[in-house]
Structures are given as C-alpha cells and as structure tokens.
Specification:
The chain is of the alpha+beta class and 503 residues long. Helix content is 27%, strand content 29%. The chain folds into four domains: 2-143, Immunoglobulin-like, CATH 2.60.40.3650; 145-228, Zincin-like (2-Layer Sandwich); 237-399, Neutral Protease, domain 2 (Orthogonal Bundle); 404-470, Roll (Pdz3 Domain). A seven-stranded mixed beta sheet has the order 4-7-2-1-10-13-12. The protein has a five-stranded mixed beta sheet with strand order 15-16-17-19-18, covered by helices on one side. It starts with a strand and ends in a 5-residue tail after the last strand. The protein binds zinc ion. Zinc ion (ZN) binds next to helix 4.
Length: 503
Amino acid sequence: MFFLVKPKNRYLEIFAEGRSEGIITFPTYVPGSYVIRDLERHIVEIDGERLTKNKFRVKKRFRYLIYTASKDQREAISTNDYLFINPPAVFPFMDVYEEYCVKIDTQWRIMTSLRRVEDPQRGEVYCADNYHEFADSPIEASPFLREIQIDETHSISTIDDIDVEMLKKIVEEADKIIQPPKDRKYIFHFRRSDKNFGGIEHRYSSAIVVNWSRKDLATLFAHEYFHRLNVKELVPKDLKHNYENEVYTDLLWFAEGFTDYMALLITLRAKLIKPEEGLKTVLSALHDLTFPGAKRTSLAEASRIAWIKLYKRDENFLNSSVSYYEGGLALAFYLDSKLIRHGRRIDDVFSSLRNIKEYTFEDLDKIAKSLGFHELDLAYKPSYEIFKAIKDDLGIEVTDEGKPYYGLIIEGNTVKFIEDGSPADIAGLMPEDQIVAVDGVNRSLEVRDSVTLEIIREGRLKMIKLTAGKSPGHSLKVKIEGEIAEKVFGKSSVEGKYNTNVI
Ligand SMILES: [Zn+2]
C-alpha cells in the first residue's frame, strides 16, 4: 500500500492506494502498549463503506481525514510546525505481508527508521517490506527538527535540547550486552511536552515524550534502548501481535521488569546515577511488593491481565494487583544477586537467550538453573514471596512493622488509598474522602491512638472515629556489602532506606 500524507493543523489528509479494491483494517491498539486505544475513532472522513468500527471496504484509491492532536508518543500529532506519527495510530492495512510506503508532502526535515526510496514518479518515499515493520517505525518531521549524531549508527531526532553525552554513555554500556548489527541505524525520537508520558520501544528507534520538569532521563532512555534486545529481538513466544485483539502473555515481568533492572544496571555502570539512587530504585520496587495486591497476585498473572489492571490502574491497585515492572525488577535483582555468588551475572541470561529468541517460561527457567538460580518459579507465586526471599537473603529491615498506623495514603486532605483490612478500612474511610477536621481542628492528620475525623463525601459531612492499629510494614532499610554491593552498585558498601507514604 502507498500513503500520501498531507499534514494540516490537527489533521492528516491521506491519499491511499492499495493493489486492488478490498477491505482495510485500522489497528485498534498500538503494539507494546496493553490497552485497546481505538484510535480509528479519529477518522472523520473516509471514501469507503463502513463495515465495523475499524474496517472499511474501499476502492483501489481512497482518501481519508484523521484527527491527530495527541501528545502521547504512542499516537500521532500534526501541528503547523511539527509532525509525529506512530504508524498504527494512522495507517490501515489490507495485506500485512505486502510492501508499505509513505510520502510526507512537506519541505520539512523528516526523520524515520523506514527505508528511504527515490521513486521515479512519487519522489522521496519511505518504505517497509511489510506492515509489522511499517507499524514499528515512527515518522517525525518539522522545520525545527535536528538530527544529533551520537556515533556512526545512533542519532537523536528532536526539536528540543538533550544531554548527548548521557546518551552516548548509555549506548556504549548497553551495546556491550545488546551487540546490535554494526550497519543498522537507530534513532531516539525525543520531545518535551506538558504531560508526563514516557517512552515506547521500536526495533530501530524509540519514541520518548516527557514533561519539562523531568530531569532524570538516563534510566528512561536506557529502558527503551534495552528493548532493542529484550522484546524486539528476544520475544515471549506467545506475544504474537494481532492489531485488533488483546494478546496475552505471562512474561511481561521479564520483558518489562527485567528491562527496568537492566536499565538500572546500565545507568549504574555508566556512572549516570549514584549507587545510593540505584539502591533506592530497588527498595522502591520492593516497597510495592509489601501490599495486599502482591499477596494476591503473581507476576505471571499481573502480566496476563495488564489489559485490565496496570493499564487501567485505579486507586485500589495496591490492594488488587502488582506491577510487573516493579516486581520484575525485584526478581531480576534477586536473580542477579544470586548469580553473582556463582561467579555469573544477569548478562549471561541474555546471552544464553540469544540462541532461543522466541522464548517460553521453561526456556528462561532452564537458562536460570544452568547458571545457578533455581527460584524463577517465584514469578508464578504471590509476588510478596519475592519480597520475602530478598528480605531474608539481604537482611532488609522493615522499619515500621508493628508501629502504629492507619493504613491510608493522603494527598493534601484527600484520601487516595486505603489498605485492605487496615484501621482506615475498618473505620469506613473511602478513596476521595476530604478530611476537613481532625479532632475538631483543621490540621493535617498524624498518627495518634485515636482521632475523630470530619470528612466530606459526595457533599455530605460525616464523622469518622479512627483508631490506630499495627502496621504490617512498608518502610525498608538495608545495608549491602561485599560482592553484591560492588558488582551491582559499584561500591564496596551501600546503604539505603525507603520510607512509605502510607500513614
Ligand atoms: Zn518497556
């Protein structure tokens, strides 16, 4: 298929041409992001007969107009001086396994990892051999777009400023593990925005959009870049992309959580973060495993239900599920710290996995065992077990265990979270309750034996008596010494603590 794209303010007008007339399908989700986005809802005009929400019968040539004003790196935006397209958000497919080419009707600079072709009739077009490759190659254009070279094969495509030295160090450190093909170019699409979004990985590029206040970009870039190996080259066997339906895998804790841990290692090795900051990331992940959700959910289950839990995270998440990012990072850290004692590293897991490429849990478990780690089945146990294993292994102190607590998180005077079975739960507090007085006075809530709260719920004033109970323990403290401290954090002794925001 061929697409001629005419960028307009907030819209793209697209003239498409297929090999013949037939049925086109707009993807309902963006691979790599586990939620049905239904971006086909942005089509406002199309020459064709509508069959379903995302399918149309069209002639060989057809035109459509699509609304594109999203600041999300997984979607598309068109303004009078900037264009970013994540292809599945904009382009349909007819036959996945035919060539897809696009021409952007602009004089602006264009950056994409698609193959540039000089077509005798159409001029400069960008092509991929099939829709999978096409969908995995974002396109960015602007009169202000700059290509900043990191080295011969890596560059940054941006309209903003970026610390190139930081990225150079990440690429150097990561490539020792990734070992990418020497001749293939890779682009970091980077943009500042007013929203705190994040990144999405592609095989030969990544797209990162973050808010202006975010300074700590090293681990985010390292995470997206490491996906070049983990997810783009090494893929869970059951993660077969289907552009219309949910795809289930038990292994997102490895695809995402292990990537998070590798990003942490890469930034530590590149000395872009301090050992103490690295330890704090580990403790923060472990903190999340101390809640009821971690006692109820394994990482495998959390992966499988990403579609309805993590991507639809609500105020009860810490009671109902667990993040396969945080849990996966913790499990990767545990595996690495055990392997270090056998003279191996987590890096060896990835080099062994290269021989398999499309892997199952059994493959991962076999590799882990062959290197000396026999507990990977923790991924199928309630993820609190991972916390317990690491706590016992490294002597982590739970500093608030048994101390007086209410079991809630408050932001300003609004209740944001209530831990199941906690005093706040028993007292009858609800998320979004506004605390207007504590013992008759307008002041912030501190833990004491017993208090009377005046709260507003749905506009009604209520009195609630809250009595402190014993905390199950969420605040953590640890001192790590010797080989693990040295090899993971790059220091002979590293200390850290993580204080919970649950009171
Ligand atoms: Zn990721």
